[in-house]
Structures are given as C-alpha cells and as structure tokens.
C-alpha cells in the first residue's frame, strides 16, 4: 500500500470517529481525483462511512463507480450494510446482480446477510432457493450460515423445516440452539422448547438472556411454576445480570401462576422498568380481577414517565370487567380520553366488553358505534356482549348488520350466535348458522361444534344433536353433558343414563352440571329411584357438595312423582335449604301439579313471608284454590293481590317465520301486524268453541 493510500485510510478512520458527512464526501472526492475509485479496501471503507451517516445513495454510487467489482468482499460489505440497516429488498437485488458475474462466487460471508434479508421480508421462496445452493456448495456445515437459515424458516413460520436444518447440523452454537428453542416456543410447542433448553445445557452450552427468556416464557404458557422456579434459581446461581426481558418474563410467569407476591418481588428489583415489565405486572393483577392494584400500577407508570401502550390499557379494562367495577373502568375510559391514548381495536373491544360485563348495555352500544367496523373483532365483542347480557334478539340483529357490512364471521362469531339461538330455541336460525359452520370449514373446531350441539339440544332437535355429537373431533365433558340434556328434556331418560355410563367407561369424570343433566332426565321420565341413585353417587362417590341447583333438581324429581312429603323432608333436613326461595318455589309448583292443598298453603305462606311482592306465588295459589273449587280462597288471593297492587307478569313467546324471530307479549297491541294476529286468534277461538259444542 503506497503512502497516499495509507494517508487516505488514516483519514477514513478519523471520519469514522467524527461521522461528519462533509469530511466523508471530501475523502471520497480525493480518492476519485487520485484515481483510487477502484481500490477495493478504500471503497469498502467509504461504503461503511456513508451508511453510518444514512447517506445510502452515496454508498451505492461508490459501489457502482468500481469499474470491475470482481472482489467478493466488496459485495459482501454492501450486502452486510443493507442487512444491518434493514434494507432487505436492496440486499436481494444486489445478490441477483452478483449472480450475473460468472467468475464471482458467494462465500461464507455472503449468505448470513442474504438470509437475514430473506427472513426480514419473510421470503420463504427465496430462502428455499438459497437453501438449495447451500446444500449443493457444501455451506451447511458452517454454523453461522446454518443458524441464519434456521432463522429464515422460523420467521416464515416453517418451524418443522427450521428444526430439520438444526437436527442435520454437525456442530451447533448457542445462536442455533436459541433459534430452535424459539421455533418450538412460537409454534406453541412449549414442552418441546423446554426439552431443547435442557438438551442445550447437557451439550455444555451456557444459556444466555435469550435462552432464559424463551424458557421462562414457555413455563408461563404451561403454568409450570416449579420448573419456572428452578430456571429462576439457575439464573441467580449463574450470576446472569437479569435484563429487562428476563425480568419481565419472570414477572409474567409468577403472575400467570398466581404467585403475585413473588412477581412483585422480582418487579420491585428491576431498576429501570420497561413497558414490558409494567404490562407483565399489571397482567398478573388483571388475571385475578384486582382492578384497584392495576390502576395503582398505572399511576406509578405515569410517575416513572413510562407511557402505557394499548396492551396496558386493554389489560386494565379486562381487570375492571372481571371485577365488574364500573367506577374503575370509567376511570380508565376517562384516562384514555384525557391523555389522548391511541385506541386500537383491542382497547375499544375491551371497553365494549367491560361495559357489557358491568350491565351498562347502552354505553357499550355507544362505544361500538364509534368503532371502525371493518374487522370481525369489533362485531364479535358486541355480539358476545349482547349474549352475556341476555339480549339474544339484539345479538342476532347485530350479526345481520355484520353480514350486510360484508364482514365474514369466524369461529367466535358463530359460537356466540349459536348460543343466542340456544336461548331463544330458534331452530331454523340455528340451522342457518350450521350451514355457515360447514362453509367456513369449522367442523373440526371443538368450541364451535360444542355450541352447535348445545343449540340442537336446547331446540329439541335430538336427531341433529346426535349427528353433531357423533361428528365431534374430541368429546369433552361439556359435549357429553349437552347430549344428556337433549335426551333428558325430551323424555329419553334411558338414552341419557346409557350415555352417562358410557362416559364413565371412558374415564371422564362428571361434574355437578353432568349430574344435574342426568338427574333431570330421570325427573322428566319419572325414574325416581334412578335419579336418587345418581344424586347419592354425586355426594358419596364424587364428593360433590350439593348446591341449591342440585337440591332443586332432586325436589323436582320427587315432586313430579308425587312424593311431596319426602321432598319436604329433604328441604327441612338441611337448615341452609329450609328457607331457600328457589327450593320452596319448586316444591310449591309440585304441590299445585298434584293438588296438594295443605302442604301447598304452608309453602305459599313461607314464600309470601320471604318475597311478598312476587305475584307468581299468588297466581299459583289462586289456581290451586280454583282447581279444588275453593272459590272463597281464590277470591281472597285475588283481593290480596289487588290490595298490594300486584299484577300477573304478562307471558312472552316468540315464533320463527322465514328465519325471522317475532316476539309477542300477552295483551300487546303495539306489534306491526296486531290487527291481523288478533283477528286470526278470534277466528281460532270461534272454531274451538264450535268444536266444544259438537263434542
């Protein structure tokens, strides 16, 4: 190297320290004036200097001005600069140009930068093409190249291909292990990720921050607290300085596993708390619905000058929804408005869900009206919100609006709409949704198919329920129970009990809801002894303590069979049940059914003492007296109701006509076709009276 070139190199080092664009341009001009534009080493230096000042076009001009760029190191330098500066498309174009020079061959320094560009652009097609070149030219034995190739497949979601490359590597460094562990984590195979983490240790490699972050995150996903604690202890033993990522994942682990005190200890030890750390701690409290602690953490974030993200706000709203703390949620809503916090689809959806969960349906509707409605997430939250609030007609109405807006339903949409159909017994509408399930190829989705089964069961379509039950990809306890409900509510008690026994043979443990289904089936079919047997099995064999619901089912079983005094004894045998309004009402209904006046009067007296404003008790008692021709008693009940200003609640019913659900309330004259409906009813009554006279 001559004196002039040496001098220019010395100047380039000075420019690297100052990063002065004017100095770099001056150096570039001198090199051209001295005829050194083809000097490869100097050109590489100039390219790096221009990139350090973001003068990308100037860097490219240096490369283009080299007359014969036949040195691969020059190409590698520019390729590396492109990859480091995330100019991935430019990197691929440069590689394509490189291939036009037959005497130039990519080397081990070319491919890592090129593969980084493929991963950044998620160009799996390009990555696979390079993979073929690597195999042909024998470059896969290079650890850095193989590790970069694993990274491409991982970023493109081809985790199996990434693991295959890893398994075929003769030698592996820490980066390779981290890549494959990350592949398993990202593909939801958290147990496998932890297996490879342990294998890495056995191979004599010491985990770094990246390894520990992925391993602890896998434990958090699996809720494997013990293994997470062991990894935490290992981090401390190895003296690793816990960075923001490791600390945040530890906070997340302990929060998800319900160890909030331990999570708080780790969190408080973090000197410079990142946004991820704050979100992890808030997430821990949100999981248990501790909205107050979440809001206190938000205040501390503000004191530390850490701006909350949409994740922070949506997590806070989830906590408020879980705790049903309307005041706390309103505070968060106000915070969003006051601080002009960016509200994405997740924040807005969390707001709608929060207001629905707190019973503020009108506010939820107002928030929904302001939301963009191009995304199915927006529609799903309001449909499920209406269902959870018992507004089933409104849920189906919103679904119709969604379809009119050309938004395609997904699994969550169909699960919610099927639940609405279940509650309304809207069979035709449910069948329509079944068609959508098939069109969307959701037949293998367990949640959707479970909702479909429940819909057919509650609509009384037993055959269709059976068909769905038999098609289920995997039968969980909920699906077995739904099928039992379908059989039981239509008097097919034998099928329900047979199904219960089959479920036990498959080692599926029943819960209280399953027992309710099978006892109810026995009740509808008058199988008193069998129903009592299942009740006793629930208590003695499965140690399930009966609640009001189970006792109500048992009393209904005995009441339907006319064993009223036995039912009354059960009620009296437990001090917790003796005055329960629901149980008394069940027994009272049975007394009315069997005309048991004496016991009925005693039960009615207790009900009136407990709930004097409930008109239903008076109505049933009046009917009992009338059926027994006790007109004096019936008049006395009517007089008492009039005196107290009580009226019988009007009955409500609905009917499906051409996939539209029309609802009716007794005495309602406001419906659109009231005149036609009442005219039709009058005609029917006339025909009925004639038939009675003829009979």
Can you summarize this structure?
The protein is an all-alpha fold.
Euclidean distance between termini CA atoms: 124 Å
Number of helices: 40
Radius of gyration: 36 Å
Helix content: over 70%
Helix vs. strand class: mainly alpha
Q: Taking strands numbered 1, 2, ... along the chain, how are they ordered across the largest sheet?
A: 1-2
Q: What is the mean predicted local confidence, pLDDT?
A: 86
What share of the residues does DSSP label as strand, in percent? under 5%
Largest sheet: 2 strands, antiparallel
Question: How many DSSP-defined strands?
Answer: 2
Shape: elongated
User: Low-confidence runs (pLDDT<50, min 5 residues)?
Assistant: none
Keywords:
695 residues, mainly alpha, two-stranded antiparallel ribbon, 40 helices, 2% strand
What would you note in describing this structure?
By secondary structure, the protein is mainly α. The chain is built from 40 helices and 2 strands. It has a two-stranded antiparallel sheet with strand order 1-2. Helix 1 (3-18) packs parallel to helix 3, helix 7 runs parallel beside helix 9 (143-155) and helix 18 (291-303) packs antiparallel against helix 19. The chain is elongated, with a radius of gyration of 36 Å.
